[in-house]
C-alpha cells in the first residue's frame, strides 16, 4: 500500500505529524510519500521519506501517474484537493483538518470550502478535539468522518539529561501571530521574571512564518516591558534537538508556556510532557485530550494573566506537585499517544474506505 500526505509547507506541527506518521506506517509496510507546495525550514528535519516540493500541475500529474497512490491525504488545501481529481486521481482521497485557528476563523473557512470538499473527497479526517468534531459534522455532512488522536514518537523522542542550568527557563514555541497569542506569553513572562529575576524567556519558532506587523507589535511590547536582555530567540531548531531543549527547560526548574487561543492538537505541549518539561497552558480545547489540571500539567483561563502567573509560580516552587505532574505527564503521553496506535487507526480507516468504495 502506498500513501501520499500533502500540506502547504514543511513547518510546525504538520511537519512533525507527517514525519511521525510516515515513520509509523512504514513499519507496517505502508509506503509513505510527502508533497509540499511551498518549501520551508522544516524540510531539513525530513529523512528517509520520499518528498516532493512543487505546486506545478504537470509535475504533480507526473507524480500521481508514476506512484499510483492507494490513498492521498490532503491537509487544509482545498485547491490541491480539487486538483487531485482534476488530474484524474481515482483512489481514496481524504481531506484532513488539524486546526483552523480561532472559532470564528474555523467557521468561516469551513463554510467557504465545504461544497468543494464534499464534491471531491471520500472522507474527512481530524483529531479527537471537540470543537473540530462539532464544526466538521456541522459543515461536512454526508461523508465518511474519521477522528482519532495524533501520534507522538514515544520511542525516539524524549527526555535527555544535561547539567541543569542555574536559572529557570520559561519557554514558548510558536509563530508570532494572533492565534498563538504571543502577547500573553510576554506579559506572563515579564511577571515571572519579577518573581524569579535570574530567569530567562526562551522562544522557539520559524521567523519566516511570522507576519511583519505582528513582529513589529511583538518588539514594541518587548521593549515596553523592558525584558529584551532576558529574551533568547531560537530560530529553526531541528526537531530532533527539541527534545534536548525541552529537557533542559524542565531540568532548569522552569516550564513551557502555551498561550494559544485555540489548538487542534498542540504538539509543543505534548512533546514537552514527553520530555519531562512541565507545562502551563490556556484552557484550549485540543489540549484537554492530554492535559488534566494539577495531574499532567496546569491550565489557566485565557487572558487571566494574574492566574497564569500564580499557576506558573506554583509549578516552580511546589516541588512535590511539580515532580508528580512531570511523572504523570510523561506516562500519560507514552500510554495514550503512541505512533503504533495511530498506525492501527489509520490502516483501519483505509480498509474501511476500501470496502466502502468497492
Automatic annotation (TrEMBL):
<protein>
    <submittedName>
        <fullName>Glycosyltransferase</fullName>
    </submittedName>
</protein>
<dbReference type="InterPro" id="IPR001296">
    <property type="entry name" value="Glyco_trans_1"/>
</dbReference>
<feature type="domain" description="Glycosyl transferase family 1">
    <location>
        <begin position="165"/>
        <end position="331"/>
    </location>
</feature>
<dbReference type="Pfam" id="PF00534">
    <property type="entry name" value="Glycos_transf_1"/>
</dbReference>
